[in-house]
């Protein structure tokens, strides 16, 4: 009557070929260096000596999300084409949120994202008036 082989999986199972932040943190040394870029996990251990930007910057970003640092540098297409060779798999779970960021976006909500939209008609009117003044 009682079935012992019932598989009720309560906890979510981490899919094969995915890596969590916990796992990544174990690979934050020169001997084994993993990095998260755009939600993909890369093993860049062998690339460290070849990196034109040096190994120090890579070690600094080891075992965590390096997307921002990678994009800040403005890496070329050539650099991006190197990535598939180092791909380990997908990222699993949650990334650590950077609490520092909330300070800048907490207030002054409209000023941080470029210029406000009303600048466009005002600029057009100003340009028109300037044109009239120069014609007169
Ligand atoms: C696996 C990931 C990475 C790859 C494949 C890679 C590849 C490259 C390549 C090919 C260049 C030469 C310039 C270019 O083509 O854009 C470069 C430059 C550079 N990289 Fe990376 N990079 C990686 C990660 C990073 C990270 C996480 C940082 C952290 C800040 C970084 C910092 C730099 C810097 C500062 C330079 C400029 C070096 C210079 O011009 O003096 N890179 N990288």
From TrEMBL:
Membrane topology designation: Single-pass membrane protein
Compartment list: Endoplasmic reticulum membrane; Microsome membrane
Residue ranges constituting the Cytochrome b5 heme-binding domain according to the UniProt record: 16-92
Transport is among the record's keywords: yes
Membrane spanning stretches: 115-135
Database matches in SUPFAM superfamilies: Cytochrome b5-like heme/steroid binding domain
Keyword tRNA-binding: no
Gene3D superfamilies hit by this protein: Cytochrome b5-like heme/steroid binding domain (3.10.120.10)
Keywords: Electron transport, Endoplasmic reticulum, Heme, Iron, Membrane, Metal-binding, Microsome, Transmembrane, Transmembrane helix, Transport
Pfam short name (any one): Cyt-b5
Similarity comment: family membership: Belongs to the cytochrome b5 family.
Official protein name in the record: Cytochrome b5 heme-binding domain-containing protein
Lineage: Eukaryota, Fungi, Dikarya, Basidiomycota, Agaricomycotina
């Amino acid at each position: 009557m009682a079935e012992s082989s019932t598989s009720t999986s309560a906890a979510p199972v981490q899919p094969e070929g995915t890596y969590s932040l916990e796992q990544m943190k174990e690979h934050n040394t020169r001997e084994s260096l993993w990095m998260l870029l755009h939600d993909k996990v890369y093993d860049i251990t062998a690339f460290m000596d070849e990196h034109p930007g040096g190994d120090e910057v890579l070690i600094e970003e080891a075992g965590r999300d390096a997307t921002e640092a990678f994009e800040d540098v403005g890496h070329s297409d050539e650099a991006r084409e190197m990535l598939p060779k180092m791909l380990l798999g997908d990222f699993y779970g949650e990334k650590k949120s950077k609490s520092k960021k909330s300070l800048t976006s907490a207030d002054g909500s409209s000023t941080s994202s470029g210029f406000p939209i009303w600048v466009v008609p005002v600029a057009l009117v100003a340009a028109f008036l300037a044109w009239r003044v120069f014609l007169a």
